[in-house]
């Protein structure tokens, strides 16, 4: 399991403190929705935006505010955004702690709301199955003991294709590498995940060793399949939840109630992710996917909207 720590995120703290020092204040206006910079969450962000519009609100386009968690959570605490649909917990717990976000032991005005996908977010570290079977690797200790197999730059450490800088997993894995017994034999390679993982897919297809981060729901699970060409050596289960500014929720109890009741089946997200990865995909396609999902689930959606409206 990934260990969580209370390590201060200095850059994030400086950002929030700067906003406070400048006297930046919330202003009433359209509901401001951000989205995460991983494509597997794009449709959910669009669904939430369209549902809030159906409640009668003007809503900003989530695609216009695509952020990493490292940037989103302090901006949410500062009132720069109202919510997003892309919280992963417990992975993102570190972003809810005042000491991590502001550098001070204060309670942040942000909170996870509802259970978009309860227990549906799996994430962790995988190894190609051929190498795992050949060397008997089933844990990260086994990876470190065979570091040379995964070392492409000759520094004696296994190259772990990891998370984008600013993702919660990137921070958590770096902490593990610093603290775990196997960490001395592993280094995390960060970049643009979708580009890096396509390189991993090519390597495995060519019969080469690969050590990489993966999560579900995501399109990669259709080509890097546990038990077929890849195996987990470390895994974690997360709940996918909306996260919102508490002051915003207090002012808009109908939106709070909507966020509490919305749930999106994991299978629906996985199916959309697979379509998105199969070819050219535009923002219009993502919006259309959200519209189609809402239409297909109209009876349930109407119940959610009625429940939310009653809370107003």
Polypeptide structure, described:
The protein is of the alpha/beta class. The chain is 42% helix and 19% strand. It has 13 helices and 8 strands. Helix 1 (10-21) runs parallel beside helix 3 (69-77), helix 2 packs across helix 12 (283-296) and helix 10 runs antiparallel to helix 13 (298-311). The longest helix has 14 residues, at 283-296. The chain is globular. The termini are far apart. The model is unreliable at 1-26 (pLDDT under 50).
Summarize the SSE layout with pairings.
Layout: H1 10-21, E1 35-36, H2 42-54, E2 66-67, H3 69-77, E3 83-89, H4 98-101, E4 110-128, H5 129-135, H6 140-145, E5 158-161, H7 168-179, E6 186-189, H8 193-205, E7 211-216, E8 230-245, H9 246-251, H10 253-261, H11 266-277, H12 283-296, H13 298-311
Helix pairs in contact: 1-3, 2-12, 10-13
Q: What is the number of E strands?
A: 8
> What strand line-up does the widest sheet have?
3-8-4-7
H/E order of the elements?
HEHEHEHEHHEHEHEEHHHHH
- How much is the average pLDDT? 91
What kind of sheet is the major sheet? Answer: 4 strands, antiparallel
| Total helical segments | 13
The separation of the N and C termini measures 41 Å
Radius of gyration: 20 Å
Q: Briefly note the structural class of the backbone.
A: alpha/beta
Uncertain parts: 1-26
Beta-strand proportion: 15-25%
Q: Considering DSSP H and I runs of 4 or more, what fraction of the residues is helical?
A: 40-55%
Shape: globular
């Amino acid at each position: 399991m990934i260990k969580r720590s209370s390590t201060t995120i200095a850059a994030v703290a400086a950002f929030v403190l700067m906003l406070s020092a400048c006297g930046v204040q919330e202003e009433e206006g359209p509901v401001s929705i951000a989205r995460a910079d991983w494509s597997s969450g794009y449709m959910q962000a669009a669904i939430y935006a369209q549902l809030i519009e159906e409640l009668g609100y003007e809503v900003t386009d989530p695609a216009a505010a695509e952020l990493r968690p490292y940037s989103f959570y302090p901006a949410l605490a500062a009132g720069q955004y109202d919510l997003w649909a892309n919280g992963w917990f417990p992975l993102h717990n570190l972003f809810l702690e005042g000491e991590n976000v502001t550098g001070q032991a204060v309670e942040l005005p942000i909170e996870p709301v509802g259970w978009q996908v309860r227990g549906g977010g799996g994430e962790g570290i995988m190894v190609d199955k051929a190498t795992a079977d050949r060397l008997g690797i089933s844990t990260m200790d086994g990876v470190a003991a065979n570091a040379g197999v995964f070392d492409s730059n000759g520094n004696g450490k296994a190259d772990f294709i990891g998370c984008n800088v600013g993702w919660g997993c990137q921070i958590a894995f770096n902490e593990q590498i610093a603290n775990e017994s196997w960490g001395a034999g592993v280094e995390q390679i960060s970049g643009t995940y979708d580009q890096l993982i396509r390189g991993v897919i090519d390597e495995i297809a060519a019969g080469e060793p690969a050590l990489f981060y993966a999560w579900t729901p995501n399109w990669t699970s259709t080509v890097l399949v546990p038990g077929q060409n890849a195996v987990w050596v470390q895994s974690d289960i997360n709940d996918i939840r909306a996260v919102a500014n508490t002051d915003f929720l207090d002012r808009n109890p109908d939106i709070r109630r909507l966020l509490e009741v919305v749930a999106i089946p994991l299978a629906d997200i996985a199916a959309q992710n697979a379509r998105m990865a199969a070819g050219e995909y535009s923002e219009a396609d993502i919006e259309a996917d959200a519209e189609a999902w809402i239409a297909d689930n109209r009876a349930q959606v109407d119940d959610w909207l009625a429940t939310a409206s009653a809370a107003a």
